[in-house]
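Researcher: We're reviewing a set of sequences before deciding which ones to prioritize for further study. For each one, I'd like a predicted 3D structure that I can look through quickly. This is Phosphoglucomutase. If possible, include the structure in token form so it fits the rest of the review sheet.
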Amino acid sequence: MDYKKRYEEWLSNEYFGEETKKELMAIRDDEEEIKDRFYRCLEFGTAGLRGKIGAGTNRMNKYIIAQATQGLADYIVEKGREYMERGVAIAYDSRHFSREFAKQAALVLAGNGIKAYLFEDLRPTPELSFAVRRLHTAAGIVITASHNPKEYNGYKVYWEEGSQILSDIASAIEKNIEKIKDFSAIKTAEEQTAVHQGLLRMIGKEIDDEYMEKVKGLALRDDIDKNIKIVYTPLNGTGNIPVRRVLKERGFTQVTVVPEQENPDPDFTTVGYPNPEDTKAFAYAERLGKAVGAEMLLATDPDCDRVACMVKGRDGDFIPLNGNQTGALLIEYMLSSMKEKGMLPENGYIVKSIVTGDLGKAIARSYGVETYETLTGFKNICGKVNELEREGGCQFIFGYEESIGYVAGSFVRDKDGVISSMLLCEAAAYYRSQGKTLLDVLDEIYRVHGYYAEKLISLTLEGIEGQKRIERMMREYRKNYPVEIQGRKLIRYLDYERGIAFDLMDQKEDALDTPVSDVLKYLFDDGSWYAVRPSGTEPKIKIYIYSKAATKDEAWEKIEDFEKMIMAQLEKVD
Ligand SMILES: O=P(O)(O)OC[C@H]1O[C@H](O)[C@H](O)[C@@H](O)[C@@H]1O
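Model: Here's the predicted structure for Phosphoglucomutase, in token form for your review sheet.
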């Protein structure tokens, strides 16, 4: 169906309310806007459905939520009675309409005879993963757009092991969605009826308490200096209550929370783009940090599955740590503490993505710990954990990505900003008791393993035109890529879409055993490499550049050379 037909259908079908029709009537003469809202239906990307809030098939609204949930409900019904009774746990964040969308999803499930466990108020995404495992539900839903700007919302789906669905279930749900030709076929229960029939149950404190105990159970040491001064910002999202609570219960007495960003604010008034990967999100925390003499700043993203930190440097300024550096520090802290305490398993492993740097892997190897790699997305990282758990014989220690997502332990199958905030504070407090900051420890790591540098470049290209240009860039780059960069020679490239790895030395092609994904990765003879891929959560093309050298300057020189060459190549594509 073309976009115009979809638009007309939404205007004429009685299922769509007056508000929606009014919103759509207002864009009647704006062809571009109609096209943008209706040229496609939202699809499951890196982290579920994600889009701008508004009326249309390419937008997030209660109809799209109902439609997606009907698709999920059909999938659960196909699985049988037992799955329907086990039901679905639902959480939501602080965004516009998150609460309403969560309720809508619960009522569609109930309308299909599936039990819904709805959190009474906003909760971090990882707690939903915990709830799925704890309540033994068939599935889970979180209404969140993570760190996207305020105009966005999203819909993440979890399956019974507590991790986000992979492409097999996502395409089964998408097929079910396609079958819904008429929105009025979606079954929705009345709230009262759902409660009365035992199909809608509220959950809250009991899950919080158990989750908290589990998180604290991951603590590795108590010989730490808990007087470390920390400034924390939940960026107006869901982290405020759980992160504060875990730090308090672990005995950290000097935690100050940024007051302007403490409470939920769907407009993210003080931060704009609430992504702690971007150091601008730390502006308020930095100011407060200087005023109170903090040694470390922490920021969780709005659904609190990710955390970033900044550490006070020698001159008093706060220095940001990127996801690769924080991951490396957490690996070093965890593995060295486990080793010291005789807790390091012989068959332990960590998981990272193919675009995450190699320093964590080098550290893990030095402790005899294996590293597995997956495609981008925590669903893939935790999917690997699920798979290895089924096979048995090895023990998961830590999973992480360069995009500041980390998890430890086995009770949450997603990245967890609460767990990682606790571990980061613990690590910082432990090293403080030895007179070191996390920056000092990072330097020690570089001295032992070599200097690793990395740069992530994201080009934002919005709308249909942007999407097309990203497609063109990927298509062109696939055919035309540099084989030499300032004397460094390309030795191997991997094309995850075509499922091949090509070795330039012996001109040999191997098949990759990873699922198909639009990612290109180029490896050079000096150990440097880079990858190019479209983002699955934002209208961006992402370029990840990595180098390793004996010194910092040398490592950065390489990054700059690579950046110039890659960007020149990409910018040729208009
Ligand atoms: O690079 P993108 O496709 O935008 O994904 C960025 C991040 O999005 C979500 O948070 C996923 O759970 C992460 O695993 C992923 O790294």
